[in-house]
Write a structure and sequence with these properties.
Structural class of chain B: alpha+beta
Oligomer: heterodimer
Strand content of chain A: 25-35%
Number of helices of chain B: 15
Strand order of the largest sheet of chain A: 6-7-8-3-9-10
Strand order of the largest sheet of chain B: 2-3-8-5-7-6
Order of helices and strands of chain A: EEEHEEHEHHHEHEHEE
Strand content of chain B: 15-25%
CATH topology of chain A: Rossmann fold
Radius of gyration of chain B: 33 Å
Distance between the termini of chain A: 25 Å
Number of helices of chain A: 7
Number of strands of chain B: 10
Chain lengths: 231, 403
Amino acid sequence: MAVKTPLIKLDNVTKRYPLADGEFYQALNGVSMNIKEGEFVAIMGPSGSGKSTFMHIMGLLDVPSTGRYLLKGKDIELYSSDELADIRNKDIGFVFQSFNLLSRTTVLKNVERPMMYAGISQDERTKRAMDALRLVQIDNKAENLSNHISGGQIQRVAIARAMVMNPSILLADEPTGNLDTKTSKEIMEHIKELNKKGTTIILITHEENIADYAKRIVRIVDGKIVADRQK
Amino acid sequence: MDYKEIVKTSLQVLRRNVMRTSLTMLGIIIGITSVILIVSIGQGAVKFITDELSTFGTDYFQISPGADQFSTLTGSDTLTLDDVDAIKTDPSLTNVNKVIPVSLQSARVTANDEDETINISGTTTDAPAILRPEILYGEFLSNENNTASEHVAVMGSDAAETFFGEDTNPTGERIRINGTPYLVIGVAHFESALAGSVLSNSIFVPINVMFREIQGQERIQEINVSVKNTDALNQTIDDVEVLLRDRHDLDEDEENDFRISSAQDILSTVETITSLLTLMIAAISGISLVVGGVGVMNIMLVSVTERTKEIGLLKAIGAKEKDILTQFLVESVVMTMLGGIIGIVFGVAGAFVVSIFVGIPFVVSPIAVLLAVGVSSLVGIAFGLYPARKAARLSPIDALRYE
């Protein structure tokens, strides 16, 4: 039986940042792991553990200092910056903790934006954006400016935008970090729903109750994986 | 790339900071306004002169006495009635149509208890061929008036009004010039905007009478020569020059003791002056546009810094370098083009106001307008490129982490 190529394969990945005094800060220290298609993984760890750096590398926003990162079996070092942008556009959806939307721009235009970069026509953009907003039940706010909606609504719009290109991976960095318990639950239900439809979810959080939605929990401390548990 | 959407987004961004955008556009607005204003005024002036020249026609040239303008003003007498006859009768000058000598002198004129100093113009029956007057009453001077040295006068319409009142026919009345009585035989009106008021304020007498009674000597201020074929005007000028030099016994190394100018010369002089002026103002406006461009660059750099996180987010959702570059470049071009359009509106409005107050035709040059739009867009591209490239080259993670 042929072994299926993992969606994400990290092989001894390190990341270090130069500091002002000439020293280096080691954010990731030899991380290796595989993520298969359709998984729901929570990356947990305290502040400064390196979990956000981990997500940025997996999301192609940053590159490893050493080690290899294979996405769908291909080393990301082989891609140009425009090709990486294209992969982010089509294969990866992002939901950040804050600064998710373009301010003073309508909800609809925010969701349409990734499709604009993909060269999709205006009519198609509007149709797909409205469909995505309907899925997260915020289509009634489509014409509202993004700075005139609540924190929970912003996160729902961010999910709609992340999913509008039908990516295979959704990367969510503390998506409920600024939300109350009830709204957090709603957001997580939407994310869970996406996973049920086949989207691979990688969730960064430091909250146990949020991580409980995931089927696999990876714990990072000081840039190293200290636990990797399937539920 | 969806340029319509990018332009819409750019306008949205610029609207967010109306004051900042307006101040940034000011340099461009001033530059473009001054170019449009000066080019329009310059072209209006050229049109004014062209219209003026077409009133008198372009089928003639003028010979003035003296080697330069100064000798004309100080009363040079190098031209004589014999010169006039020679030009008229020379068999080689086949293109010459009419030859009209003019002698000018101001004199004291009295009539109807009025006493004024008026310009007297001594000329011949052919003068209307060039001056193109509208004869309101009576007739212009005849050949007989001149040959018989009759004491007759044709009054300019304004001069007639001064002595005899408005809408009055003074023919048959008598006026005194320097105490000598003259019979008024006609009234002539001159339309020309530039020379019309001077001519309409003059009194015309036979040139022989002018020499004998008013000047006491033969002094010609100008000889106007009209031609049959305008295309051969320059050749006729050359021929007349040769004839006069010969008549005045001038050696080869001697300069002319007369000057010849044509309506075309005047037009080309005005055009040269206007072009020089336009070029000068364009250079000054160029400085204003460069200063405006630096302002645009400065504000675009501020904008890139302010929107670093936004750039990070756009890159995260798939914007390529060229998408970000285009976005910022379009913003910069939209800003300078708007400045250009406002400048055009101000320039055209200013030119309209000037045309009304100065009395020149209102002319808007489509080339100047197109050039203004082109130049302002170019300024936007030139000065927006560096900030746009800076934005495009930001790494996604550095941009997202920017605080």
